[in-house]
Amino acid sequence: MLIDLHAHSHLSKGCELDPLHVLARAEAFGLDGVAFTETNTQDGCDELFELQAKTKLKIFVGLELLTDKGQYLCFFPRPDLAPEPVQMWGSNREKPWNAAECLPKVKSLGAAIVAARPYDRDSQNPAGDFVLTLSCLSAIEGFNPKVRQTANELAMEAAESLRLPCVGGSDARSSLDEVGRGATLFKREIGSQAELVQALQEGQFWPVQMGELPKPARGPEPREGRGPMQRHRTRGRRRH
User: Which residues, other chains included, contact 139 with Cβ-Cβ below 8 Å and sequence gap of 6+?
Assistant: First the structure.
């Protein structure tokens, strides 16, 4: 089952993507599901889940937690019951939330945690080797089409060092053209939010590159991925 585990919609600040259009685009790429990981919030998860009646794809909800040491995709069995980050740690306007404090708390609430784009030096407060000190992770994002390939390779090396699996996701935010560029291939069918969390904790999944990589805005042309990376270049092709 192919799921884009990292996508945004208008529920994220600075993003204008209609979630229904995101789902339609993902279906055109042959995906089976999309996880909307809005920035620092799950407010609006009811709106997203209500779209299930309008699509064949499975809809999942997480949040992308921005901290002083990296970005983390957090998936709760019941997003509607999980407290908002601002409720737990207050405003982050003055300074970002402390990863060492936040991540254990998120884990204690039953969430599966994925380190997103940890070696992307162009993002604010990248995690870098801090991820190597964490024992609360379920996985590391090993393929993100919006970062340099060297950053993806370092993420996969970190996952290997921690003996963790890797996920893939499009990180779509600016354009529908970004949707479906990356995904995660799960060994079994995922039918619910709780099953997604369980599957992430069990670790039987692999990152997948979908379609052709967009031309990079900076740096050299990306090289072929390595490690567990799989490639899907044909739209509409499905893998289960």
Answer: 112, 114, 115, 159, 164, 165, 166, 167, 200, 203, 205
Domain membership flag for residue 237: no
- The whole-angstrom separation of Cα 54 and Cα 66 is 31
Burial of 201 (0-12, 13-18, 19+ CB in 10 A): middle
Q: Is 239 a domain residue?
A: no
Span 39-65, pLDDT tens digits: 999 999 999 999 999 999 999 999 999
Q: Where are the alpha helices (DSSP H) in the chain?
A: 19-28, 45-49, 85-89, 99-108, 149-162, 193-202
Strands (E) in 52-165, as ranges, are 58-67, 70-75, 112-116, 139-143
Question: Residue 68: how many CB atoms within 10 A of its CB?
Answer: 17
CATH number at 32 reads 3.20.20.140
Per residue in 198-219, pLDDT tens? Answer: 999 999 999 999 876 445 444 4
The pTM for the full model equals: 0.89
Into how many domains does the chain fold? 1
Please tell me the number of Cα atoms within 13 Å of 184 on its side-chain side: 31
Residue 186 lies in a domain: yes
